[in-house]
Write a structure and sequence with these properties.
One of its GO terms (biological process) is phosphate ion transport. The chain contains 13 helices and two strands; from the N terminus they run αααββαααααααααα. The chain is mainly alpha-helical. It folds into two domains: 51 residues; 232 residues, MetI-like (MetI-like fold, Orthogonal Bundle). It is globular, with a radius of gyration of 26 Å.
Length: 306
């Protein structure tokens, strides 16, 4: 009623003011969201950096010995804090799971985008979403109930092993590899395919020699993102890997990772003690590796030509 009494010029001015207010509100909201995200990242980095360095600065632990020694016995008469077996375990399960997930994930992406583009996504997309939605504890429980006994009875060893952790992790990172690879292949311009077919190339020659080469930086990004997730996974791996402090001599031996040792021991140590501080140091190693993965992904992104 009130708006009806306003002239057309007044309504236009009022509308312009409302638009300006909406612009200001929107700008404040997105700026605040960005600042909160940046502040949280900086705060976590500073906090974890200061806590992780305490074992070296306050407790006098040798950083070289911490990284390279294989002797981990924090409750002995002469406590030792060699984290190399756990660093090795983290890298081993990460690279081995990437070796399994990369060809499977990229192959599934090729099927979805090049072989069966009309119905491939309709079938595989819900499967991928289901894999993403399954909690990590469920993966670990299935691994503990099915995979560990299967490996013990058919392959050898006690079942709890690097191999069990690798298989569980490769399934967990598969959706990440498939999703990003599918987007990378689908975003390639059609003239690449048409030009290859016009020169007489077959479908497989086009996929192998044209599309995969063109999308290679994005495909590598997909694999590295999967590796980043695998490196930080804790619960599912902890349930199947065995959690021992010895260095494994084969893929069928039990092992441990940085994340599994942190989750197992964090609740049993006194805050501020040397053992507690070494667990924070392991957390700092995980953070540094996360930064390394991100830098590598940024480098791969900068190499994209299409």
């Amino acid at each position: 009623m009130k708006n009806k009494e306003l002239s057309a010029q007044d309504r236009l001015i009022l509308s312009k003011k409302n638009r300006r207010l909406d612009e200001v509100r929107g700008k404040i909201y997105v700026t605040a969201a960005a600042l909160i995200m940046i502040s949280a990242t900086i705060a976590i980095t500073i906090f974890l950096g200061s806590k992780g360095m305490q074992s070296f600065i306050t407790n006098g632990l040798n950083i070289f010995e911490f990284i390279t020694s294989t002797d981990w016995n924090p409750v002995g008469e002469n406590p030792s804090f060699g984290a190399f077996p756990f660093i090795f375990g983290s890298f081993a399960v990460t690279f081995l799971s990437a070796l399994i997930a990369a060809p499977l994930g990229i192959g599934a992406a090729i099927f979805m985008t090049e072989i069966a583009p009309s119905w491939g996504r309709k079938i595989l997309q819900p499967v991928i979403e289901l894999l993403v939605g399954i909690p990590s504890v469920v993966y670990g429980f299935i691994g503990l109930t099915v995979l560990v006994p299967f490996l013990r009875d058919n392959i050898g060893g006690i079942g709890f092993s690097l191999l069990a952790g690798t298989i569980v992790l490769s399934i967990m990172i598969l959706p990440t590899v498939i999703s990003i690879s599918t987007d990378a292949l689908a975003s390639l311009p059609n003239n690449l395919r048409e030009g290859s077919y016009a020169l007489g190339a077959t479908r497989w020659q086009t996929i192998r020699k044209v599309l995969l080469k063109a999308a290679m930086p994005s495909l590598l990004t997909a694999v590295v993102l999967g590796m980043a997730r695998a490196f930080g996974e804790a619960l599912a791996v902890q349930m199947v890997i065995g959690n021992v402090r010895e260095l494994p001599s084969s893929i069928l031996d039990a092992s441990a990772t940085l994340t599994t040792i942190i989750t197992l021991n964090m609740g049993h140590t006194t805050y501020g003690s040397l053992e507690n501080n070494t667990l924070w140091s392991m957390g700092l190693i995980l953070l540094v590796m996360s930064f390394a993965f991100i830098l590598f992904i940024r480098y791969l992104s900068s190499r994209r030509k299409i």
